[in-house]
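seq as requested:
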Amino acid sequence: LSVDDSVLDKPYMDSKKASFVDYFWSGKHKKTVKGINLITLFYTDIHGVSVPVNYRLYDKGINKTKNDYFLEMLEEVQLWGLKPAWVTGDSWYSSIGNMKLIRKLGLNFMFAIESNRTISIDRGQYIQIQTLEDWLGDEQTVYLKNYGMVKVFRQMYKNTYRYYIMSHFDL
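struct tokens:
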């Protein structure tokens, strides 16, 4: 089950006359643009078939974050009977709160994380993941403050490393 959000560009729409239209960061444009922010959960089966199973339109007028919407949708699809083994997403969704709820629901996770995310090899001594020198290949088991043990790994992309975090144990 993967969470992703995208901006549906609406550059000419009057946001005072159209619900959900506001300014959002667009990965496509690498800047803030006027549009509708769509948050979607995609389920991929063992054959690689991927389908959207839940969505929300982000409303800045309601006191909810994109993470609030994500957690609502995740709990909903489980109530509907969907039993994903893993939950994935970009770094926006890699908060401690999200990871704790995913663990509580009995699921595994894998998220992208920012290069300045703090981790600990020796519990209590925190460093940014980008400064970790003792990589075993490109993977390491570390302690994440307020969560517990996780696996982190890195992958070279366009001459720079991208970092990821995942559940330490299969549930």
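The chain is about 15% helix and 45% strand.
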